[in-house]
Design brief:
By secondary structure, the chain is α+β, with helices and mostly antiparallel strands. The chain is built from 13 helices and 38 strands. Strands 1, 2, 3, 4, 5, 6, 7 and 8 form an eight-stranded antiparallel beta sheet that branches. Helix 4 packs across helix 5 and helix 10 (about 610-620) crosses helix 11.
Length: about 725
């Protein structure tokens, strides 16, 4: 790609771009640009927009040369407006919208600076990048591109200006909250997020970049000015079970993220606050569908197994107490591999008595573990199933208990509550109240009863095209508020009883016929500019049905141990130590040979451990080898998921880092990009598409030699050169 851009730029003449204190536009209509247009995928509109339009995935780019004499030795702010529509969301990493500056340094090396433009369908929005160009720049250019996707992208108003001095943001923070403490909503129900910039804990004026991502694939990015009395308020929704993530990032005077070193030795991190909200988490289902032939396959394997005579191939004593003897055994099985398990023989059993299903029994904990991996293994390698026939044979015996265990691990409590909700918001003059429902009334006995012919609640006589009323029991706005509707300025002077009909304003007419003819109409209402105050408190009261849902995720290991007696727990520990003599279920046999930790058979080369920071990471990470995967887990007390494990290692390895609890994609934002050829032990490795979520979906710690340590199930080493990990590979990143 770099070579392509060099070729494009070399074929163009220099475009004169002057950089001064005042912003100066980069000309998109220059002859050097027009020569690269083809009026199909790349064209220039009459309004000066450079448009890339792809009916199908394709690559299009424009190279614009920049005179190096005008930028060398200067700190400048480059910005450009970008808008998009029709992009497939999400967009694979490295594809989509590209805005890139590049220059050649005195040593001949080329430097590429990529502007972070989200691959999101959005109106024209200005994006900026602060750049310092060193002395002696030989050549420079700007690249605009749309890569390997369909859709339409518009670029306009690229410009340079001198970077502004940045004020002291050392005590600035960002805080946020959802309108519900539990952050759980129904499908298509409004989710309300609120963010505020703080200086030493007090609300202040600032600029925030809001970024939205969700399981619906929709992305949004916008810049919003906030004030002490005007926080950032953002409303979105989700049309399916899943999650929405929204974060607000503090920007400086140049529109760049404010960064801060959270603790000594840590890299500079953006000052931001992230929130997540969920929709019907109890409806979330597994990402990989069950194969259509799943049941038929199992029935056939059971039939094959039943035809194999039971024969003990190997038997080793592993434990004995006053009640039982426990043996590690290998039994004949369908296929060319035996099956391994534990044989528990009661002390009271008579010598020579024929073994039965009551004595030849794989422990229930083995069946529990097996159920979690059966389908995954089926999808990867069906041949392996011939080696776990005993688990299949006995699964029906423990199925009901397994289901009970799962219910203990994952529980949902719901409670329906009906309550009266009063909502108050501040609306500034000139701003819209939204669409309101209006009705009509006059001063006759039909409309006003005993109050007919009299004054309004404010004491003034009602006037047509002037007076409106609010409900007395649920006033929408205070008396005296001036409202503009349909180009007419009204004053709230009266009250009535019409909220029960869904009406916010009752409009006064001079006669009953006109009032009746009004019926119920929906108008957009605005706070009039000539209100005495700059803002108005708007209040609404309504009855709502609220469903409180609590999802509990217990640690599977803890649930199992709470159900075991001492003997069962000892056997369970033996199983975890030896993997039930079924290493292949955990991919142990695919790992390089060596001493390793935790029995996983991989030993990190000594030269890699000479890096103190990497050694600290591995020392912490290997403490948890064998810990089970627990969705949402983020500490040894709960066990881990993939991002929880990596976040814990980073924060607790003693390297002075603190990234907090991040998702996989959140960890990617904490890293600098590293090419695969430059990756080293201690870098993070990211994968995409391992389940349905935009951005990075899985993360591990790279240890060199195509190996990583990660939270699979359980935490273990894995070879990233396998077909599965290569298919889903996304990028390497280095912690800053």
């Amino acid at each position: 790609m770099k070579a392509v851009f060099r070729l494009v730029c070399a074929a163009c003449c220099w475009t004169a771009i002057m950089v001064a204190a005042e912003p100066v536009a980069v000309r998109l209509d220059a002859p050097e640009v027009r020569r690269q247009l083809n009026n199909t995928t790349r064209k220039l509109t009459e309004t000066g927009e450079l448009v890339f339009q792809h009916a199908a995935p394709a690559k299009s780019w424009i190279g614009i040369p920049i005179d190096p004499a005008l930028i060398a030795g200067r700190e400048l702010l480059f910005s450009v407006k970008v808008g998009a529509e029709g992009l497939p969301i999400p967009v694979a990493n490295g594809n989509g919208i590209m805005v890139q500056l590049h220059y050649t340094k005195t040593d001949g090396r080329e430097q590429f600076l990529r502007l972070n433009v989200p691959n999101a369908n959005s109106p024209l929005t200005r994006h900026s990048l602060k750049v310092f160009f060193p002395e002696g720049v030989k050549k420079a250019g700007l690249d605009l591109a749309l890569l390997n996707v369909s859709g339409t992208v518009r670029f306009c108003e690229p410009m340079f200006r001198d970077a502004l001095p940045v004020k002291d943001f050392s005590k600035f923070t960002v805080a946020g909250a959802t309108d519900r403490e539990e952050a759980l909503y129904r499908e298509n129900e409004p989710m309300k997020f609120r963010f505020q910039a703080l200086n030493d804990g007090k609300p202040v004026e600032a600029r925030l970049r809001l970024v939205r991502a969700g399981d619906d694939g929709k992305e949004e990015s916008r810049i919003i000015e906030v004030a002490p009395d005007r926080p950032l308020e953002y409303v979105t929704s989700l049309d399916r079970p899943g999650y929405v993530m929204v974060r607000a990032m503090l920007l400086d005077e140049n529109g760049e993220p404010v960064r801060r070193v959270p603790r000594p030795g840590a890299g500079a991190r953006p000052v931001q606050y992230g929130l997540a909200a969920g929709v019907a988490p109890e409806k979330l289902r597994q990402g990989v569908p069950e194969p259509e032939d799943f049941d038929a396959f199992w029935q056939e394997e059971i039939r094959k197994l039943a035809a194999v005579p039971l024969k003990v191939l190997e038997k080793k004593a592993v434990e004995s107490d006053d009640a039982v003897d426990v043996f590690d055994v290998k039994l004949s099985c369908a296929g060319d591999r035996p099956v391994s398990g534990y044989l528990t023989v009661p002390k009271a059993a008579k010598e020579g008595k024929k073994a039965t299903e009551d004595t030849i029994r794989v422990t229930e904990t083995i069946a529990v573990k097996a159920k979690k991996v059966l389908q995954e293994i089926l999808c990867r390698n069906r041949a392996i199933f011939a080696g776990i026939g005993v688990c299949v044979l006995l699964f029906a015996e423990v199925a009901s208990e397994i289901e009970e265990i799962f219910r203990e691990q994952y529980s949902i409590h719901t409670e329906s509550v009906r309550e009266t909700v009063t909502e108050t918001q501040t609306v500034r003059v000139g701003e819209s109240l939204g669409q309101v429902v209006t009705s009509g009334y006059c001063n006759c006995p039909i409309c006003c009863g005993v109050w007919s012919g009299g004054s309004t609640a404010s004491g003034a006589m009602p006037q047509a095209n002037h007076t409106i009323a609010v409900d007395a029991s649920n006033p929408f706005v205070p008396l005296g508020t001036k409202i503009v509707m349909n180009g007419v300025e009204y004053v709230v002077e009266d009250t009535g009883a019409f909220d029960q009909y869904g009406v916010q304003f009752d409009v006064y007419y001079g006669d009953h016929a006109a009032a009746s003819a009004h019926g119920h109409q929906t108008w957009e209402a605005y706070i009039a500019d000539d209100n005495g105050s700059q803002d108005v408190e708007v209040t609404s009261t309504r009855e709502v049905n609220r469903l409180e849902t609590v999802l509990t995720n217990h640690n599977l290991d803890t649930v199992l141990r709470n159900r075991m007696n001492d003997e069962e727990e000892q056997r369970y520990d033996y199983y975890n130590l030896t993997y039930g003599n079924r290493d292949y279920l955990f991919d142990v046999n695919t790992l390089p040979s060596g001493g390793g930790s935790g029995g996983f058979g991989y030993e990190i080369p000594a030269e890699a451990l000479s890096d103190e920071k990497f050694a600290n990471m591995i020392h912490e990470a290997e403490k948890y080898l064998g810990y089970p995967y627990v969705w949402g887990g983020a500490s040894p007390s709960t066990s881990f998921d993939c991002s929880g494990f990596v976040s814990w290692v980073i924060n607790n390895c003693g390297n002075g880092w603190n990234v907090g609890r991040q998702t996989a994609d959140g960890l990617r934002s904490c890293c600098a990009y590293v090419s695969p050829s430059e990756a080293k032990p201690g870098d993070l490795i990211f994968f995409q598409g391992t389940y349905n979520t935009p951005g990075a979906s899985h993360v591990g710690i790279y240890v060199g030699d195509n190996m990583m340590i990660h939270c699979g199930n359980p935490i273990q080493y894995a070879n990233i050169s396998s077909a599965y990990w290569q298919e889903h590979f996304m990028a390497f990143g280095r912690i800053q």
